[in-house]
Amino acid sequence: MGERGNVGGRRNDLEAGREELGGDRGAPAAEREELGGHLVAITAEHEQLGGGLLAITAEHEQRGGGLLVVTAERERRGGYLAEITAEHEQLGEYPVEVAAEHGQLGGDLEGIITEREDLGGYLAVIAAEHEDIGAEVDEIARNETTLPAMLDFLTHPHRAALRETPLSDAQRAIVEKNVASFASFDAADQAELAGLMQVFLAEKSFEGCGGLELTEEMKVTIAAEACILLLHRETAYYPDVESILVYPAAYRVRAKRHDGAVVVEGDEDRLGESWSRGTVVLAWDHVKADAGRTNNAHNLVLHEFAHQLDGEDGDMNGVPDLGRSSRYGSWGHVLAEEFEELTSSLYESHGKHSDIDAYGATNPSEFFAVVTEMFFGKPAAMKDRHPALYEQLAGFYKQDPAAKGATG
Ligand SMILES: [Zn+2]
Q1: What is the CA(363)–ligand 1 centre distance, in A?
Q2: How far is the CA of 257 from the centre of ligand 1 (A)?
Q3: From the CA of 185, how far away is ligand 1's center (Å)?
Q4: Which residues pair with 282 in a beta bridge?
Q5: What's the 10 CA to ligand 1 centre distance in angstroms?
């Protein structure tokens, strides 16, 4: 083929070149495509990165929020811990309170048990007295009116004359002025009271204490009040009482006292005392104030001398010498029931107490003293609200103060 072959060859070269070029021209396109792919990849990467950044931002925000939550939690925990601490402190006090409550309850229960035991003692004493005295007293009772009078005449020959001696004008004036209930007695009772007072004044020794200078007014007023309890009765004129100590006012003593489970020691103000042998102690200002009032269930002299009557049979236990044995049964039944009612009213119904002075719940002996004060000081109220109790006391004291209508 020669030149043409050459030309042809040359053309072929060109074509090849062109083809080459075409190939060259084909290479940038691939390149571009590759680049495009890269850009797409980069874009995607960027987008991914953008998303990643968003995710990071979101994460950060979340973390920020999370930290806030953690902080809030911390604060909450702080508050919680403070609460727990407060709770603990409170809890710490609570057992102390519970213990105190228990202690108090223990004391209360002990008081109730003691009271119950007292009541049991009361009933036991009544039963014993009832049995012991039994037939013996019935036998003595047959001579009830003659024997004591005969013995009294033999052992105290001056008493009969004293019993007939009236009060002096000065003494009578004192009684009329100081003893409010004196006016409620009829002439016969006033004369009998005068005779009892004469024996009392002749036989008892009075002593002023705490700087008090005794006067006739004091002696006569005390004698009159004390002898009201002896009217109409066979009496030995308070055989155990030798001296009466009179203080100007409430006097202070060093006392040791059981208050529930606790023993309280310290100074204590007292208005009066009745010792089982020999002595009665009185605060004059209270003697005078009580004696001067009617419709008054507080009377210091009646209270202390009721204790003396209670002790005449050997025990201050709320059961005085009732004479006939047949009286002990009803006395014990009625007084034990009233005593129980008073004590349970104090323990069970707060604020709604009995009209009998709460001091009577101390023990049967105080109960007898307190109801004696009420019997003479507020007889109508007692007869109305405690008829059985009034009847027992009227039988013992052989008086019916409610019938006078002067007090109550
Ligand atoms: Zn008393």
Answers
A1: 9
A2: 15
A3: 26
A4: 246, 272
A5: 157
Yes or no: say if 240 and 312 are a contact pair by the CB < 8 Å rule.
Answer: yes
408 has pLDDT over 50: no
Q: Which helix (H) or strand (E) holds 170?
A: helix 169-178
Tokens of 25: 């021209």
Asked if residues 300 and 272 have their Cβ atoms less than 8 Å apart, the reply is yes
CATH of 145-316, one of 3.30.1330.10, 3.100.10.10, 2.30.30.240, 1.10.472.150: 1.10.472.150
Neighbours of ion ligand 1 (CB under 5 A): 366, 369
The alpha-helical segments, DSSP class H, found in 143-186 are 147-155, 159-163, 169-178
| Distance (Å) from CA 154 to ligand 1 centroid | 33
Read off the amino acid at residue 168: S
CA of 27 to the centre of ligand 1 (A): 133
Distance of alpha carbon 173 from its chain centroid, rounded? 45
pLDDT tens, position by position, 215-245: 999 999 999 999 999 999 989 999 999 999 9
How far is the centre of ligand 1, averaged over its atoms, from the C-alpha of 293 (Å)? 20
Helix, strand, coil % over all residues of the chain, rounded to 5: 70, 10, 20
Rg (CA), the chain: 53
pLDDT score for 365? 93
CA of 273 from ligand 1 middle (Å) equals 7
The pTM assigned to this predicted structure is 0.63
Q: Count CB neighbours of 313 within 10 A.
A: 15
Q: Which run of H or E residues covers position 273?
A: strand 272-274
